[in-house]
Amino acid sequence: NDIQEHHGNTIFLDRTTTATFATSAYVFGSVKKRTDDLTALAQQEHIPFHPLSWEMQAGEGVVFEPSQVLHRGQLPSTGFRYVLAFCLLPSPIPWDHAFSQNNYEGFRPDYTWHPHAKELMQAIPVST
Description:
This protein is mainly α. The protein is built from 5 helices and 2 strands; from the N terminus they run H-E-H-H-E-H-H.
């Protein structure tokens, strides 16, 4: 949904600014030790501070590396903010091999494959 419907957003810092904050010992620490506003720390450490955000419309998106870029969510002030998030993670073994060996670590114990996922697995040749 459009930003005008909820007035929430995601605020980003570029990689250079993120790296500079890292040298000041503030980057990706404990959630309890994070702050909502880095303005004071930026001033104290003489870090140029220019947060980035975009007024997204329904259907638009941002692709970024959350482990490489400081970012924070801004709560909606009106209505609901609907977000679709994808997370791509490297795997030490191919996913088809992991699932063929019933390695469902991290899933609920009663996890079952959606019918379309089963069809996909049957269509893809699995080499073990």
